[in-house]
């Protein structure tokens, strides 16, 4: 039987952070990935958090750590673990240097909306940070990587080590290896509808995962079978509206001109009755709030006219998206909408009149509400939700009129297992399950209430780095 100091389950951003640290520490390490390719959802990460990195110091952009801690605790209504946040915040700046020394390149530091300037954007996103940095570094340090291999069982033996049962995905052959420690890094459970439905705060049919598609709760089930606490806060990392079309992979729609025009611009969003439910401008500033507001509805549509479509294409739109969109218009928007209509994309609805549009999307109150909305636009006052007048774009003209159906885009989950400040998994009585660690999405319940804190951007991805290193350092120092 092969014998390892540590087996890491999942080769995403957190898994590779743990693997690189394990290589540095001289641990005999096996990194197991069930997919054909590595990186997982980490490939799409834009950047990671820090408060006092070298870059921030050079740019006089250091953030007060005490204020950050208080912000996160308040945002979570004190459901977050203050000790873990304190440790994470203190080490985050050093982790930026650690990443760069291992081949991950940081392009810039920025904020998101009106949030703190803590977001260290990768050059080439997480994909390059992993595949040009952490992955080759870990392998050069002797970490053994296997793909298309799934961990299907963990059995704790008398000396508190583990027999780890591996299933080869190609030929379905099983083999067992021994590990003194196991680190779970499978990314949570966003792609598991059953687990999503078991949380208190979700509307799973509206949640559209924009991730690797592999986060099915594997690590959680392995830990639960060993007595770990089922620790659900109902946190899905939602980034607001996402075009809803079950026939098209979500990642192909996210970030497009159509998507940005209806999800980044505070247009008129209505629910299944054809009535607004939020100040759209307040929602787009914090996309976690946008996601929460949308997830309370049964269906969501963005309603606009041909006049708005033409203005967004040829002239300007009201909310600047720089630096993510280089100019204040979407030059390809009209052509993209026409192409989507020709291809019969299910998220797009078009009709000559608002009455016909309401009938097509089954929103009975839509014509009356849009008449009311246009009256508010003429008066330059949103008496329903107090949206600023510059965003009250009248939905008028001779038609046609459009409705784009939205779901709630989500990136990962932030609950499932309870861990301590060393990322050790805890059982139902709050006691250690010796030798078992959870990192990244598998061990992030300590960070959140029910909502991701966009006001301090990069914290989840940064936690993947922190928790991966933290778990390995805990193994070495125990």
TrEMBL record:
Keywords: FAD, Flavoprotein, Oxidoreductase. The lineage of its organism: Bacteria, Bacillati, Bacillota, Bacilli, Lactobacillales. Its cofactor is FAD. This is FAD-binding dehydrogenase. Residues 5-443 form the FAD-dependent oxidoreductase 2 FAD-binding domain. It comes from the Bacteria. It holds the Pfam family FAD_binding_2. The keyword Metal-binding does not apply.
